[in-house]
């Protein structure tokens, strides 16, 4: 469970922090890290391309192997479980039988000293990685490839997992954490288990400054801006937006309109769209 901070200040009264008792090493492997230069949401000409980004604590980038395909059949031993500031999940430092060390996404329940392996077909246990066609129906998987050999692309954040529902020809059917059902080629690889740090969603930020440490800048209401900056801008004092429906800063409808781009290549792999939670009255 997250640790509750003592109420020494108003910002700390409701604040909770992650329980780092599962971490076994505080300093990262030097050969697997590099400096991370912040872009802060700016484009090449220095203009804001993505709003609300900037600042934040300095970070070292950890090189995490999301493929593991070039080490098929080579057993690896877990050397340590570590913190990664660039993702919500924990990472595991593993040492292969040939002596090479790499970082991988750590599943829940993986401990130091455990042996894992990536192969086309291997024993079904937490941490092992194999092709979807060799995984029994009903198992939880994560770090799933969408194209064979390209590396894990979906289900990588803390506490998430997808469920293998069944097979349809040369495709596997999986249910994503969003309840969306997808068809993925059964030769794509996935890791058995659930992503580590499942209590990440229980953390209470507590104060605005902690969000700034994460590299996020404030979000200003559109109606607090001038008319030149936002469709909601202008007016005297606290007035309404003056529109029958809210709009984005670029003049498009903000509510009640699907935002997914039409005719995406991945549309053909979606069997059922995600089910949205109904709002309580």
How do you describe this structure in short?
The protein has 281 residues and is mainly β. The chain has 1 helix and 17 strands. It folds into 2 domains: 20-198, OB fold (Dihydrolipoamide Acetyltransferase, E2P) (Beta Barrel), CATH 2.40.50; 220-281, Irregular (Ribosomal protein L2, domain 3).
Integer average pLDDT: 94
Q: Classify the secondary structure makeup into a structural class.
A: mainly beta
According to CATH, the fold-level topology of the largest domain is: OB fold (Dihydrolipoamide Acetyltransferase, E2P)
Helix content: under 10%
Shape label: globular
- What kind of sheet is the major sheet? 7 strands, antiparallel
Low-confidence stretches: none
Our measurement of the CA-to-CA distance between the termini, rounded to an integer number of angstroms, reads 31 Å
Instruction: Please report which band the strand proportion falls in: under 5%, 5-15%, 15-25%, 25-35%, 35-45% or over 45%.
Output: 15-25%
* Corresponding CATH superfamily of the largest domain: Nucleic acid-binding proteins
Helix and strand sequence:
EEEEEEEEEEEEEEEEHE
Q: What would CATH call the class of the largest domain?
A: Mainly Beta
Total DSSP E strands: 17
Domains (count): 2
Biggest sheet: strands side by side, in what order? 9-16-10-13-14-15-17
Kindly provide the radius of gyration, computed on alpha-carbon positions and rounded to a whole number of angstroms. Answer: 22 Å
CATH architecture of the largest domain: Beta Barrel
In DSSP terms (H or I, runs of 4 or more residues), the helix count works out at 1
